[in-house]
Amino acid sequence: MSGALFSLSWNGTEPAWLKNWRIQSGASGFRKSEPGRSGQEARGWGALIPPLLFPPEDPQADSSASPLPHLEAKIQQTHSLARLLTKYAEQLLQEYVQHQGDPFGLPGFSPPRLPVADLSDPAPGHAGLPVPERLRLDAAALAALPPLLDVVRRLQGELNPRALRLLRRLEDAARQVRALGAAVEAVLAALGAESRGPRPEPAAAAVAASTASAGVFPAKVLGFRVCGLYLEWVSRTEADLGQLAPGGPA
Question: Where are the residues of the annotated region Disordered (predicted)?
Answer without folding.
Answer: 48-67
